[in-house]
Amino acid sequence: MTQEEVSLEARLEEQESFDPPESFVEQANVSDPEIYAEFEDEWPECWERAADLLSWDSEYDTVLDDDDEPFYEWFTGGELNASANCLDRHVEEGAKNRAAIKWEGELGETRTYTYGELLNEVEAFAATLRDRGVEEDDVVTLYMPMIPELPIAMLACARLGAPHSVVFAGFSADALATRMNAAESEYLVTCDGYYRRGDALDHISKANEGLEGVEHEVSDVVVVDRLGDALTHSLADNQHDYDELVAEHAGASVEPVSRDAEDMLFLMYTSGTTGEPKGVKHTTGGYLSYAAWTSHSVLDIKPEDTYWCSADIGWITGHSYIVYGPLALGTTTMMYEGTPDYPTKDRLWEIIEKNRVDVFYTAPTAIRAFMKWGKQYPAEHDLSSLRLLGTVGEPINPRAWKWYYKHIGNEECPIVDTWWQTETGGMMITTLPAINTMKPGSAGPPLPGIDAQVVDAAGEEVEAGKAGYVTVDKPWPGMLRTLYNNDDRFLEEYWQEYSDPDADEWVYFPEDGAKIDDDGYITILGRVDDVLNVSGHRLGTMEIESAVVGVEGIAEAAVVGGDHEVKGEAVYVYAIPEDGYEGGDDLEAKAEDAINDSIGPIARPESVIFTPELPKTRSGKIMRRLLEDIASGNDLGSTSTLRNPEIVEEIAGQVEAD
Ligand code: 6R9
Where is the Acetyl-coenzyme A synthetase N-terminal domain (predicted)? Predict the structure, then answer.
């Protein structure tokens, strides 16, 4: 480094707050600080601003109906269709030839769908689904990687009023079956395979294996042919080729079904404390308004932008900020099929340069990987088209934030560190990029209209600097309405901890730890339940544990997270072999396979540690904290409250040796 670079680095390292550049503020969608006070004064009518970003078939009568708390309803009486909001209205308003989706495959091939073309394709596929018997309110499962047919199928479902349930393509056959069973879904759209690091990956075999585990009859399966000759596969009687069906329905016109604002738009399964994934229900009016509003106010998206969120559509981030939010605003949204280091570690920067991307939204785990690879990769590219950067999924450490700010944003782009969840539908805690000072490592204040705070175990707000828990006192339009077919679990999971039903006080508990500073900025500390955050993905420790104890020869297991330089958190499995079995390569491989089969490669353990006992408290509870500290290499402190303190050193010794 030159002397100048060294002093620049030093200055950046010490700087604790950053203001948005004037040039950004001047052009921002939202730049008046009064918005916070306005939302507070006008609450809940302030949320009309979100609803106003959409076109309604019939106007709603009530902004918020809180008659049956916490089963809140938003924009009641209103009717709309999500696909019409994402497509038809833009075409009608003259944007027929604007690019809606720009897709790039891993091998370098590209496809662009203009709004006009996307509408045609969505109508043809909606006609196909209708022909196959899909009716309003039928749940259609979509098990596809990052190919354009995924958002096309989502919008086709939305057009018919059939809720979709997207299952992340990296999930296993078992995970697909569990989700199809839970949603009683009779339709599946999937594909033959896709590319990963240049290899053609077989996906259809996994889908077929999953279908074997579905307990009800699956009437139709549509298979997209992504790989052509690179993978040959045969179709069963109820399986149909996507291209053939769409060709048959080319030119079809399918009226978008007017949905009640509270009708379900989609289901998204997410990990919780128990082994059973939770089916988070999102609605048409509230969710779509909220996705559009946060895309407008936080991501500052304009129709003429090229916007790129590098998440996978199989997660909520992709739903809200690759598909629904950006398309509702009529912008150009990018999709990339593959990995960021294929064929070289500058792939993402090349995509940004080539497409003149204006706004880029990614995860801290990706940024940590970019940092590790080195600044020379972005430096080879002209990234000057970028105006705003964002992160989501996990806490970002100040060092990664500053690297992103300097080496990707050239110190000219504000960064929004957006805290939210599958359940919240959209962003909740983040700076507004033209209004607030940024503090690396801290997400920022709650968005206007979001009544979030940090409280102690008794529900009292904590003092600045003290750790506590995030809670949200007032409802918001994008919130989940319930867990599918399970109102009781919805109440237990989110509303039990801090609510006082007798006093009619309902407080949403997201199960995240946090602290707050004197300016009201919230720093998220991480999950406080048994959910891990591995590379920004939520994984339930119970799901992994039940996979491991299903292995013959394993008696008991505990799964915890340990610190990981790139993934943030990594999976550590501690397992006790049954009598007559010995922990070793064989049992380790079996445990890994079991995890792969029940969840998928994202849950691959960093290490499987065999031990004759697990550290337990005198009352017999597994000391997870201690296992986490061992995995992270932290100081272990006192183990005197344990029933079996001697086991700790033995385990720690093994982890070090691993
Ligand atoms: C959008 C998404 C939700 C959990 C959430 C929290 C963590 C998300 C974060 C963050 C710190 C951020 N999380 N964004 N932690 N800073 N900016 O990720 O949804 O997959 O449901 O995960 O992710 O722990 O509770 P989801």
Answer: 34-86
Q: Same structural domain for residues 644 and 544?
A: yes
Residue 512: inside a domain: yes
Residue located via tokens 């979001």: 450
Do 501 and 536 sit in the same domain of this protein? no
83 CB near ligand 1 (under 6 Å): no
In this structure, what token pair is assigned to residue 388? 């705003």
Q: Is residue 570 part of a domain?
A: yes
ipTM over 0.95: yes
- Domain span at residue 516? 468-523
The model's pTM? 0.94
Residue 538: give its domain's CATH number. 3.30.300.30
Looking at the structure, tell me whether residues 483 and 563 fall in a common domain. no
Q: Is the CB of 113 under 6 A from ligand 1?
A: no
Distance 640 CA to ligand 1 centre (A): 35
Cβ of 600 closer than 6 Å to ligand 1, yes or no, is no
- Strands 332-336 and 306-309 come out as parallel
Query: 372: burial class by Cβ within 10 Å (0-12, 13-18, 19+)?
Result: exposed
Assess if residue 297 is contained within a domain.
no
Q: Assess whether the C-beta atom of 324 lies below 6 angstroms from ligand 1.
A: no
**636/554 same-domain check:** yes
Same domain, yes or no: 489 and 558: no
Residue nearest to atom 3 of ligand 1 (CA): 421
* Best residue for ligand 1 mutational test, from 508, 538, 569 (most atoms within 8 Å of Cβ): 538
> Looking at ligand 1, which residue's alpha carbon is closest to its atom 1?
421
Quick one: which atom of ligand 1 is closest to the CA of 391? 17
- pLDDT tens for 596-625 read 999 999 999 999 999 998 888 777 778 888
515 and 582 together in one domain: no
Residues with Cβ < 8 Å from 556, sequence gap 6 or more? 549, 575, 576, 614
pLDDT (tens digit, 9 = 90+) per residue, 118-136?
Answer: 999 999 999 999 999 999 9
CA distances from 179 to 167, 187, 297, 531 (A): 8, 12, 33, 18
Question: 10 Å Cβ neighbour count for 193?
Answer: 25
Question: Mapping DSSP to helix (H, G, I), strand (E, B) and coil, where does residue 371 land?
Answer: helix
Select from 392, 450, 535, 602 the residue to mutate for testing ligand 1; criterion: most ligand atoms less than 8 Å from CB: 392
Using one digit for the tens of pLDDT, what is the confidence trace for 161-189? 999 999 999 999 999 999 999 999 999 99
User: Is 594 contained in some domain?
Assistant: yes
Q: How many domains does one find in the chain?
A: 2
CA of 276 to the centre of ligand 1 (A): 20
CA of 390 to the centre of ligand 1 (A): 13
Query: From the CA of 128, how far away is ligand 1's center (Å)?
Result: 36
